[in-house]
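Section 4.2 – Deliverable D4.2 (structural model, holo form)

The reporting period included a commitment to supply a predicted holo structure for the target in complex with D-gluconic acid. Inputs used:
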Amino acid sequence: MKIIAVKVIVCSPGRNFVTIKIETDEGIYGLGDATLNGREKSVATYIEEHISPCLIGRNPSNIEDIWQYLYRGAYWRRGPITMTAIAAVDCALWDIKGKKANMPVHELLGGSSRNGVLVYGHANGQDIPATVDAVGRYLDEGYLAVRAQSGIPGLEKVYGIGRGEKFYEPAETGLPIETLWSTPAYLDFAPKLFEAIRNTYGSKPHLLHDIHHRLTPIEAARLGKSFEQFNLFWMEDPVPAENQESLKLIRQHTTTPIAIGEVFNSIWDCEIILREQLCDYIRSTVVHAGGITHLRRIIDLASLSQIRTGCHGATDLSPVCMAAALQIDMWAPNFGIQEYMVHSPETNDVFPHQYKFEKGYLIPGNEPGIGADINEKLAKKYPYKPASLPVARLTDGTMWNW
Ligand code: GCO
Ligand code: MG
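Output (structure tokens):
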């Protein structure tokens, strides 16, 4: 089998997506998500300029060799652009291998370890009562785990609070919008949100919360302690983790579980965290962490420290990424949970897929490959629109982490 074409499809059915389609001389093709929110064109160009020409004529069965070629052969290793581009190729090659073998990818990874993939949905509201109601709607729909984010009094445009309840999308057309952040206001407010949710729905639902890299380690330690009485499933990205050791301090002070890693792009970003058991869930997923081949290595290293998976699954990751992540989730012995934000109807039309939500779980189905496709004709109707993620400043104007 030979690769005869590599297409990069950029489209915007509700938001921007970059998709790679690798075609073979046997008529089988594979798909991979290459979307990096706000930097879509950089990845598209990287693939077109530096990857596509190297793939033509290669045997797509040699996934490992192609991965090593693209990683070692780049000389400039790692980084989100390179690793997203490699991830997309890797995912498309696994898709081809699955289709050729007539098996879903999880069968090739070692078979399924469970019947379905536990997912969490995103509830958000402008204030505590609205967020409590939003959590209730997810529970009514059968979700067993819900992430809750609320507006904070006095702060405009807080992370996680959407225009529509289900289709939260932080990237806005044009240049980055500026948002405000106040750590004291947040630390005072956040425990009250979870107190209200537990008082309304009791102890059973799994509750999650995303801090989105805003705190210092000692602040995160304090928040984790105040969350303990509400038994969170996790607190996510408490600190930016360029400094992996910074999580040690949080661990010494709180038993609130920690999830981290959606912005990591290789095993080297979490090596210390995983070896030293500094988190409980690793958030990396297929598209930003070097594909199925590399994510599997991260997951195996995590398993040595009883760290479980919690793959990123926001709407800026296309259904192609979600389908691939579900293949990993079905296999991973140390699976924890999968994030699941419902895509817009336009996105779902462009990316038909077989996974389905049932009673709190996603069921990936048994189609060969990863189980997602692209309608290229329809994709053409949604041209790329430049959009950026917001930035954040403290109330005195200092630049902060968004
Ligand atoms: C999450 C993430 C997202 C990111 C987004 C950035 O936990 O789902 O934090 O909301 O902000 O994916 O592109
Ligand atoms: Mg997050």
